[in-house]
Amino acid sequence: MIDQTKFTLTEDRIPTHWVNLLPDLPGEPLPPLSPATMEPAGPDDLKAIFPMEIIGQEVSMDAQVEVPEAVREVYKLWRPTPLYRAHRLERALDTPAHVYYKYEGVSPAGSHKPNSAVAQAYANKQAGVNRLVTETGAGQWGSALAMACAQFGLECLVYMVGASYDQKPYRRAMMESWGATVIRSPSDTTEAGRSQATHPTGSLGIAISEAVEVAAGDPGTNYALGSVLNHVCLHQTVIGQEAIAQMEMAGEDADVVVGCVGGGSNFAGLTFPFVRRVLRGQAKTRFLAAEPAACPTLTRGAYRYDFGDTVGLTPLMPMYTLGHDFVPPPVHAGGLRYHGDSPMLCGLVKNGLVEARAYRQNETFAAALQFARTEAVIPGPEPAHAIRAVIEEAEDAKLAGEERVILLGLSGHGHFDMSAYESYLAGELQDPEFSEADMEAALGRLPDAPAIA
Amino acid sequence: MIDQTKFTLTEDRIPTHWVNLLPDLPGEPLPPLSPATMEPAGPDDLKAIFPMEIIGQEVSMDAQVEVPEAVREVYKLWRPTPLYRAHRLERALDTPAHVYYKYEGVSPAGSHKPNSAVAQAYANKQAGVNRLVTETGAGQWGSALAMACAQFGLECLVYMVGASYDQKPYRRAMMESWGATVIRSPSDTTEAGRSQATHPTGSLGIAISEAVEVAAGDPGTNYALGSVLNHVCLHQTVIGQEAIAQMEMAGEDADVVVGCVGGGSNFAGLTFPFVRRVLRGQAKTRFLAAEPAACPTLTRGAYRYDFGDTVGLTPLMPMYTLGHDFVPPPVHAGGLRYHGDSPMLCGLVKNGLVEARAYRQNETFAAALQFARTEAVIPGPEPAHAIRAVIEEAEDAKLAGEERVILLGLSGHGHFDMSAYESYLAGELQDPEFSEADMEAALGRLPDAPAIA
To answer: Does residue A5 belong to the interface with chain B, where contact is any CB pair within 8 Å?
Structure first.
């Protein structure tokens, strides 16, 4: 008999502030660089596409930032999200480890993405913007922004990576159901898109270029990014703050916190409130970032300034990168197919506070199935990478004979990824891996920017 | 600014008992009839396919039945489910009505179905059964049973209606991800299936015949039905009990409770705890059952004894029916395409306690989109019928100038139904309706059973 498996917070426990880790990090933050001058970019470089409130959050040195009341109201539709003890998985692994998971798939869009989408939509609405434009790969961010725009009466335009547009008509229908307009990228609606017509299946980098171009050229339209930037990581910290409160309810503290990394916002949102405690000497938590072997940014990338998009319209950011025009192989974890990562997260990896591991597609789906058959939730292919890492940790704890407490970030469900499960069950899933040749090519394509000190 | 939109119960508020409405109903319950003799069927007619615990629940005259602790443990994975005040929908409708919705889509299978699947899987596991066999149309029940069987280490075999099997590969992949075996129906694995090979797209009635045949012929295999029968309605009453507690938290009582009806288990689960209060003179709630115009069992069917399946293997039940071999047009609300309905619910309709209304496909999808764009959740096509009825009630309350309190049962999400939304958005959805000719044919095909007194 299992005692208690779920730790529930009531709505009044939705965090009132976001955790800003920037002031806790050692040294001065490395500035983004203007793509035109390669000099540090200022607010003026961003205000064509972001509202001042968001720009302020991007560079804020305040330890916490208040969540607007209207944003908390929308959060109430699915927050606080549940924390579970994975008793059934523990028994299947026969491990002394205690495994907990924080589940963000209960949001209407099915992932953690709405935490930032709602905050960005509200800030833009307050700034008098009529329309937001963005890009989406797997569809999670586009869905989240479409949903958030519907809540605040904003128009929403989504450039969807061509390959996903063709393979995932249901994600497209979801965005359209919330009222968004979805355009296949590369498109002929932008210069950036026309310049990339030779890549008909598109990429996240190309779609970002298209969206940024539209926002820069239309005063009533702003751009919204779903990961990487500081303000997106900031918004996601509701996850980790709730998790800390729920781990207290469970009467345990996490020895290791595990999440998957695409652009880093899910990982940041879960871990940054825990990282702050470590940086302040209040805890000794380890952090484990799981990424795909097909797009191993943190484990294989170069730590350099690089563009956020393919065409080179965005500021350059200091990060681990596989090269801004790298097009990852078509693994099903579409949300993890990005050449770079959040500069803040990259700094933590560089400083050794966060350990990164890369996993192949088949081993992550094996882990996902084991999770589904024990804990019932069918995970998205992205958090399946984190589940694989958790299983490694739980097996290691068994070898060590330790009651290790492991906290998993389960960032979303796999309801729109069942074709990937179908392929896995049929034994037809490929295991693409990043090669030495890929790496050499990536290094050769990096922009001529200053080295990071 | 919106005050409070969600009413959250902690796990200790998961009901400890199911509500059995049978002893509250006026008169003696009408017995099912044996298909062989047309005489009242007894436990012996059922024990080849059901465990005694379930048979006992089917005929119990106890006012409440205890929920086994192991079942409550699994319920904790998603229960208690949230109750919301639909402030945003109310504003969009400009109605003085207060609309609440109880959301069952947070279960791992995405609907209310696991409430009974878990209870049935556990009862069969306790009885020493190795395998459960069932049928599924839209896929909700098959998914729920696959998930429940994985929790208790049972094998699961699902006969999936041919048309759904072809159109919904992702529901199939979901069941297989939980370890179930899925067979397209009609199949050549059963006599019933072979006899219906002339209906290659299948029907729920044919799939039931196949599953019952397999269960009857294998001592280690039992059958599990996802709706209609008393014990299934019983298991679902956790919904209504939680809703009563949550409406108390909201400080309101429902004037009208609205749900969709396929076989009746969702509607029963939501309403029966409220109906008991009405029957005992403790409340004056109205009840509204929404069904598709393409399969209008409660609004157009004959109140007669009929089989539960196409071939005629199941006992005959007293219910509104469109004829056991009626194959409804392929509307997207696959969960509502059943020729009969729960005998208990049919009795309440017959007695005037429950009002039934039928809606066409396009008007239900229009309602679903309005709901998605205000309340964020994308509803399944089945509860979209109930949403349509709620909008009618809210508009009527506006005309009457009443602060009517409306409670909606939102039985599941539409994540596996996005192709239907796609068709609706493209203006390509049909509006099939049950015709007079259909009705005449149905009446001509009813079995030669005693009339209902």
So the answer is: yes
| Unique residue bearing structure tokens 């629940």 | B57
Residue of B83, B88, B166, B418 for testing the chain A interface, max A β-carbons within 10 Å: B418
The answer to whether the Cβ–Cβ distance between B422 and A170 falls below 8 Å is yes
What's the Cα-to-Cα distance from A310 to each of A160, A197, A292, B367, rounded to whole Å? Answer: 15, 13, 20, 41
A228: left (phi over 0), alpha (psi -120 to 50) or beta: left
First to last CA, chain B: 56
CA A212 to chain centre: 19
For A132, the enclosing helix (H) or strand (E) is strand A131-136
Q: Nearest chain B Cα to A143, which residue?
A: B376
Sort out which chain A residues have CB atoms less than 8 A from B419's CB and list them.
169-170, 173
Note the residue count of chain A: 453
Diameter of chain A by CA atoms? 64
User: Is the Cβ–Cβ distance between B283 and B299 less than 8 Å?
Assistant: no
Q: What are the start-end ranges of the H helices in A217-281?
A: 230-236, 238-250, 265-279
The model's confidence at residue A1, banded by pLDDT at 50, 70 and 90, is very low
Low-confidence ranges of chain B (pLDDT < 70): 1-4
ipTM of the complex: 0.94
SS3 state at A301: coil
More confident residue, B287 or A163: B287
Structure tokens at A23: 């002031």
Contact between A422 and B150 using a beta-carbon 8 Å cutoff? no
Rounded CA separation A184/A163 (Å): 9
pLDDT recorded at residue B1: 46
d(CA A8, CA A242): 10
Tell me, what DSSP letter sits at residue A48? T
CB A411 within 8 A of CB A271: no
Q: Determine the distance from the C-alpha atom of residue B310 to the mean position of all C-alpha atoms in its chain, rounded to a whole number.
A: 19
Q: Is the pLDDT of residue A434 over 60?
A: yes
Q: What is the pLDDT of residue B3?
A: 61
Best interface-test mutation with B: which of A8, A74, A122 has the largest number of B CBs within 10 A? A8
Residue B55 CB partners (closer than 8 Å, separation 6+): B43, B46, B47
Tell which residue, A126, A117, A199, has the closest CA to residue A158: A117
Query: Three-state SS for A232?
Result: helix
* Residue A167 confidence (pLDDT) above 90: no
DSSP A96: S
DSSP state of A336: G
Provide the β-strand partners of residue A66. A17
Could you tell me the pTM of the whole model?
A: 0.96
Pairing state between β A6-7 and A83-85:
antiparallel
Q: Which two tokens stand for residue B168?
A: 């919904």
Interface mutation target, options B8, B118, B175, chain A, most CBs of A under 10 Å: B8
Side-chain half-sphere of A98: how many Cα atoms within 13 Å?
15
Kind and range of the H or E element at B120?
helix B114-126
Chain B residue with minimum CA distance to A416: B415
Which residues in chain A have their CB less than 8 angstroms from residue B74's CB? 376
Instruction: Name the residue among A189, A90, A175 with its Cα closest to residue A137.
Output: A175
Q: Which residues contact B352 (CB under 8 A, 6 or more apart)?
A: none
Q: In the structure, how many helices (H) and strands (E) does chain B have?
A: 18, 15
Angle of helix A418-425 versus helix B169-177 axis, rounded to 10 = 60
- Alpha carbon distance B76, B73 (integer Å): 5
Residue B92 neighbours by CB distance under 10 Å = 16
Helices (H) and strands (E) in chain A, counts: 18, 15
DSSP A118-160: HHHHHHHHHTT--EEEEEESSSHHHHHHHHHHHHHT-EEEEEE
Number of Cβ atoms within 10 Å of the Cβ of A222: 27
Identity at B403, one-letter amino acid code:
E
